[in-house]
């Protein structure tokens, strides 16, 4: 399956459904079946008060993205502040299929730093998965992937391709360059990691978006300087061969490290 990873930079016109429409058109033209965008891609990350722009999971923004997915025939993963209906605001992502139907919704379970802790309520569900084009897709957001337990929960549940919208900040480049590829190998799955790049408010984002494969390779990688639309291939044969060579899941001894 060919996928696209959007690396965005905060600048005029880089937010909202219009910007997503342009990326989806480009991704579809390049043969992608799935477009993965960064954390909070519809609104930007550095929000003074996310509650002011939060929407329900099926709100107006969701309707706009569904139209975009249908028009271009490409599945889309996008991030937004979700109004939970109980006064809570969640850092959320939705996966929409190429027919515009919602396939999966996920709320970030591991909040990063005081900014997120002040404005968001953590989600309480792992793993979140769906089936698409013969693969089992899973969702995490940014800091979640830095916890091996979260990724391993997906691996044990059969996730083939882990989709991780992110907002990785400098100076933590090593998360993208070292940790994400390691997660792909140790849990024997693909990881699609789509970041923001450059300054936004008080934050400076690292870029370095990538597709990491279970065989230890990184088929595509963006730099840390500019926006990009990466195109990569998720190959079920690579996945099967790598799992045969590296039977980490079968060889685990959870009775020794259950806690």
Overview of the structural elements:
The chain has 259 residues and is an alpha/beta fold. It contains 7 helices and 14 strands. The strands form 3 sheets. It has a 6-stranded mixed sheet. Helix 1 packs parallel to helix 2. The longest helix has 15 residues. The mean pLDDT is 97.
User: Treating each run of at least 4 consecutive H or I residues as one helix, how many helices?
Assistant: 7
Helix content: 25-40%
What form results from the Cα inertia axes? Answer: globular
Unreliable segments of 5+ consecutive residues:
none
Mean pLDDT equals 97
What strand line-up does the widest sheet have? 5-4-3-2-1-14
Total beta strand runs: 14
Distance between the termini: 37 Å
How much β-strand is present in the residues?
25-35%
Structural class: alpha/beta
Order of helices and strands: EHEHEEEHEEHEHEEEEEEHH
Radius of gyration (Å): 17 Å
| Largest β sheet strand count, sense and barrel closure | 6 strands, mixed
Per-chain topology:
Layout: E1 2-7, H1 16-29, E2 34-36, H2 60-72, E3 75-83, E4 89-96, E5 102-107, H3 113-119, E6 128-132, E7 135-139, H4 148-156, E8 161-165, H5 173-187, E9 190-194, E10 197-200, E11 203-206, E12 210-212, E13 220-221, E14 228-233, H6 236-245, H7 248-251
Give a short overview.
The chain has 259 residues and is an alpha/beta fold. It has helices at 16-29, 60-72, 113-119, 148-156, 173-187, 236-245, 248-251, and strands spanning 2-7, 34-36, 75-83, 89-96, 102-107, 128-132, 135-139, 161-165, 190-194, 197-200, 203-206, 210-212, 220-221, 228-233.
